[in-house]
Specification:
Helices cover 50% and strands 9% of the residues. It has 26 helices and ten strands. About 3% of the residues have low confidence.
């Protein structure tokens, strides 16, 4: 009895209750205190966006990485962020003209890029599941494995009734990892042919071919022979589609073990950002499907339009201004009257029409007077001024024209100044001269443009200095330069490889014309060619080599030693191991105009039935 009383007193003293909302209420209190200290009146909405994303969304991150937060708490945090965005007046919340759902969409989908708290929570928890699965030697992995999934995988663990809240939280995000992970083949010894997901077929990653009766094939390693696929066996056992997918997978020459990868990321690693993106896309697909079933029209966003808006050379607050215009989120009089039934919906500038977004920016007499003095005119869009979104879409089609981006940037500055002149007229009874409004828009645009160009000149000068400092290095007299080119031919399942070797005096030493099966991926084929080139160089006993090829993107990956895509990761790891065969192994850029011989050899390779090697004396 005494111990029970003591336990009750401890719970009362430290606030420990069975209500999870109360346990995690400190998060909401912490966010509220931070927001109360912000002087939001001194911040533009662009400033609020930066502050909220950097501080508010970061506050609950640690707790969300371990626990699933209650749904109500997530909604309360979103509500606090929405109130901070729209602001307050006389201790009352201002109208929210755009739903928070639009704010949580990515900027490419027409949103503001704020996080949906529940989805973000799930993506963070999925990261912990990924760590437990890919790093079994961690202490937390060992403890959870011993208690909840002994002898199995975290993806197969059960959730008993007495499970801790941490484990229940992790299991709520398990499906995210389960749907997106598959095996990456190394030596093939740890991958089951028929049960595991291991091929890149664009579906679930599993083999479609039914297992033949009496077949003893079980592991992927049984489909290999001498670090190459056994093509005859594969075409005999599997359907053609499955066989083609299998043969496109690169095999490790350094006997790497099979491992789990995240198929939605190029480098095969799960990231919170990538997981959140997948969850967001699934939610959008559900909404689209629901809308079709209910017979409603689902408005798909134009990604190119939104991406062009956020990349425009204008101030960020003006980008947000245009975003609000497109989403009908400006507090014009017609909007206010429709929402609150207060005030007059008539424009105070002309006194003739309802003050809508289109009217105040494009149709009003005051706006037209300002447009007359502007340096940019859109006479061909006069019939589109009834809908701002349609008018904006038509205008954005002019980006491809001469100085199209500059014309649109100046247009946004004019729209911004028209809106500011309207606010001065409504709230301060100030009438601004049309010429001065237009002049200010031009001046602000030029000022911003000059600042951007100044930064670009500084960046270019710094790059030039770095290049000049690197050119002073002397060439190594022992180094052998290997010039490499590949050639593809439409309808041909193979690709040609041409290699020429030159010494430090630029004299020819050797040349090869090789033919290999194409994977269907040009980057992967080039990586395979580099690996074969290193084998040839090692066979000649060369100790210092410099391999040159044309692809800048692939050259950067080889120089850094890291693959950007999972397709070439196995080859890249082999190249890193093979580079230890040489004293130095570097990579450089090839010029097709001056190094045409290797290109010719790659074309010849497509005509040959076997690989060929020459000494330059016989060419």
């Amino acid at each position: 009895m005494a111990s029970q009383t003591k336990s009750t007193q401890l719970k009362s003293k430290y606030g420990i209750t069975r209500t999870k909302e109360q346990i995690f209420s400190f998060i909401k209190d912490k966010i509220r205190k931070k927001m109360d200290h912000w002087k939001t009146k001194l911040l533009s909405q662009a400033g609020k966006e930066t502050l909220m994303k950097a501080v508010t969304l970061a506050t609950p991150t640690y707790a969300m990485s371990c626990y699933k937060l209650p749904r109500k708490l997530c909604k309360d945090i979103s509500t606090m962020m929405a109130r901070c965005w729209w602001g307050q007046k006389e201790m009352k919340d201002k109208q929210h003209w755009i739903t928070w759902d639009k704010f949580t969409r990515s900027k490419a989908e027409g949103g503001m890029g704020f996080k949906d708290i529940q989805m973000f929570n799930k993506a963070l928890l999925a990261k912990q599941v990924w760590r437990i699965m890919t790093q079994p030697n961690l202490l937390v992995s060992k403890v959870l494995k011993e208690k909840y999934f002994p002898g199995g995988s975290v993806l197969e663990g059960k959730v008993p009734k007495n499970a801790s809240w941490i484990w229940q939280s992790l299991m709520s995000a398990r499906e995210v990892i389960k749907d997106g992970c598959q095996k990456k083949v190394g030596n093939g010894k740890g991958t089951n042919i028929w049960d595991d997901k291991w091929i890149n077929n664009g579906r679930d990653g599993r083999i479609r071919t039914q297992k033949p009766e009496g077949s003893e094939l079980k592991k992927v390693s049984q489909l290999m022979a001498q670090h190459r696929w056994n093509r005859n066996l594969i075409y005999k056992v599997f359907h053609k589609e499955d066989a083609e997918h299998i043969l496109s997978i690169p095999i490790s020459w350094s006997d790497q073990e099979d491992r789990m990868i995240w198929k939605h990321n190029n480098n095969g690693q799960y990231t919170v950002a990538n997981g959140y993106k997948i969850l967001q896309q699934k939610e959008m697909d559900k909404k689209e499907k629901r809308s079709r079933e209910e017979g409603c029209s689902y408005q798909q966003t134009n990604k190119e339009l939104w991406e062009a808006l956020w990349k425009m050379p204008i101030k960020h607050k003006m980008k947000i201004f245009v975003w609000k215009c497109i989403n009908n989120g400006l507090p014009v009089k017609a909007q206010i009257f429709n929402r609150t039934k207060k005030g007059e919906p008539v424009c105070c500038g002309c006194g003739e029409s309802m003050e809508t977004i289109e009217h105040v920016l494009l149709q009003c007499k005051k706006a037209k007077e300002i447009w007359k003095f502007a340096l940019v005119q859109w006479d061909g869009l006069q019939d589109q001024t009834g809908c701002f979104k349609q008018w904006w879409n038509m205008m954005m089609n002019a980006r491809a024209r001469n100085e199209g981006d500059d014309r649109i940037a100046l247009t946004v500055n004019v729209l911004w100044q028209i809106w500011k002149a309207r606010n001065a007229r409504v709230f301060n009874s100030l009438q601004k001269e049309p010429f001065k409004v237009s002049e200010k828009a031009t001046a602000e645009w030029k000022e911003y443009l000059d600042a951007v160009q100044h930064n670009q000149r500084r960046s270019t000068a710094e790059t030039r200095r770095q290049q000049e400092s690197g050119q002073g290095e002397q060439a190594d007299t022992e180094a052998v330069t290997l010039k490499l080119a590949i050639q593809h031919q439409k309808g041909n399942s193979s690709f040609g490889i041409g290699i020429t070797a030159l010494n430090a005096a630029n004299q020819g030493i050797a040349a090869w014309s090789l033919r290999e099966r194409s994977s269907g991926n040009k980057d992967q084929d080039l990586a395979e060619a580099v690996r074969l080139c290193m084998v040839k160089a090692a066979g000649k006993g060369w100790r210092k080599i410099n391999i040159r090829f044309e692809n800048k993107k692939m050259m950067a990956q080889f120089q850094n030693g890291k693959a950007w895509t999972i397709a070439i990761e196995a080859i890249m790891e082999d190249v890193q191991q093979m580079s230890l065969w040489f004293r130095t192994c570097t990579f450089g850029r090839l010029n097709e105009e001056t190094d045409s011989l290797c290109y010719s050899l790659s074309k010849i390779a497509l005509l040959n039935f076997c690989d060929m090697e020459w000494n330059y004396a016989t060419l």
